[in-house]
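Exercise 7. Given the encoded structure of a 279-residue chain, write a plausible sequence.
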């Protein structure tokens, strides 16, 4: 018998403070739960998005005291759902390093945090549009890949720019993940060019479901994000997709038997070979 899971991806245009971020996302999560969803996923930066230095420092707090984190834990317990907070921006807690962590949190139906993942690959880039991003200046990269336990199997956690690093997703799949999450706040130029093709590639090469809830729209700090949240099967088929960047709920029911079917058809995860790099 197939294992089925009803999911909802929340697409947001998150405000610049944690209190406002919680108020923005809560009605969407409530609506998804009322529609019978078991597993809800939110985007990167679900507590706040703010790149202006002074305002960002005012908004930043510890994970244990962040208003959005605490509020979403309570909400998951109230609604009896699994909730992936795609990421929150919180203090890293590392002595001597004042950069923040960009952290995914998996919350169970009792409101407990059961897994954490700190974004490993930070976005440092100069775009042809003139946009310049130096995420490493404010975000401390994580160093540990995470496969979390869920009632539906292993959940491989990634965040945004991680999607460009195939080896991470391969390691997660080989480590037991059948679902890969890619919460994001993609820029418009890179989103339009690469978002869907990268997500589909990660699904195909690992034989995994990919769930990618996204930020979309123009934010209070002036940044513009791409939206277009989507869900992709282990065969690379897009089974649910938003065609805009407005706040919304994207529903998808996942048939987990498709993971085994895809990996039997193309067992690439078992075909690794040692090689010597060319000169």
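Solution.
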């Amino acid at each position: 018998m197939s294992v089925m899971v009803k999911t909802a991806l929340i697409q947001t245009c998150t405000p610049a403070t944690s209190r406002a971020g919680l108020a923005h996302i809560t009605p969407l999560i409530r609506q998804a739960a009322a529609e019978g969803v078991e597993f809800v996923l939110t985007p990167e930066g679900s507590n706040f998005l703010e790149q202006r230095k002074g305002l960002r420092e005012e908004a930043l707090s510890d994970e244990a005291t962040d208003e959005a984190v605490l509020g979403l834990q309570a909400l998951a317990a109230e609604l009896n759902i699994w909730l992936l907070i795609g990421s929150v921006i919180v203090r890293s807690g590392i002595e001597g390093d004042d950069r923040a962590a960009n952290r995914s949190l998996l919350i169970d139906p009792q409101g407990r945090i059961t897994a954490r993942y700190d974004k490993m690959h930070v976005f440092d880039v100069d775009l042809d549009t003139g946009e310049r991003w130096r995420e490493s200046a404010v975000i401390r990269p994580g160093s540990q890949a995470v496969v979390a336990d869920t009632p539906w199997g292993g959940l491989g956690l990634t965040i945004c720019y991680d999607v460009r690093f195939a080896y991470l997703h391969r390691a997660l799949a080989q480590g037991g993940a059948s679902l890969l999450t890619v919460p994001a706040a993609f820029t418009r130029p890179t989103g339009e060019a690469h978002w869907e093709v990268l997500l589909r590639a990660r699904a195909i090469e690992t034989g995994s479901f990919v769930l990618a809830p996204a930020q979309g729209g123009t934010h209070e700090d002036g940044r513009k994000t791409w939206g277009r949240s989507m869900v992709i099967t282990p065969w690379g088929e897009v089974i649910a997709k938003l065609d805009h960047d407005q706040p919304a709920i994207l529903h998808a029911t996942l048939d987990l038997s498709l993971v085994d079917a895809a990996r039997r058809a193309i067992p690439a995860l078992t075909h690794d070979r040692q090689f010597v790099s060319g000169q």
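Remark. The radius of gyration is 18 Å. Students should compare their own answers with the one above.
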